[in-house]
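In response to reviewer comment 3 from the previous cycle, which asked for concrete evidence that the modeling workflow produces usable outputs, we include below a single protein chain processed end to end. The sequence was submitted unchanged, and the resulting structure tokens are shown without manual editing.
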Amino acid sequence: MISYLVYVSQAATELNGEALEAILAESRAYNSRNDVTGVLLFVAGRDGNHGSFMQLLEGDQEKIDSLRRRIFADPRHHTKIVLEKGTKPSRDFSDWSMAFKSVAPSDLASHTQFADLAATEFIERCQASGAPGALKFLCDFWNAEPS
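The workflow returned the following structure tokens.
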């Protein structure tokens, strides 16, 4: 069994491609050293939001807990909420120290429960009632054929 964690957060400032690449390079280096895999989804902001992250981390429970503390202390994002955590039979992103997609809010339109991921309302809803199905959404979204 492998441990996993899915969380969401909001970017603290506007992030350009260079800033996202820096975050990704840091994540991939750390994750490679610690046998952590996963995927990072960044959704461009709207309505005054600077953008939102949804991330899946897979690995040893202690490494995931340590990484969560490190990530949640990072000032580049705020309103960090764990959506799902537990164990599963195997890794979904075993070939990736950190897979990555940056998308526009419109790219999520067909994923009803997560279509407003870039909006403040999504974060508020997650704080109130969570977001069941986050792991399945990330896996399905990653594996979907581009439109």
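The longest strand covers residues 77-88. We consider this sufficient to address the reviewer's concern, and the full set will be provided in the supplementary archive.
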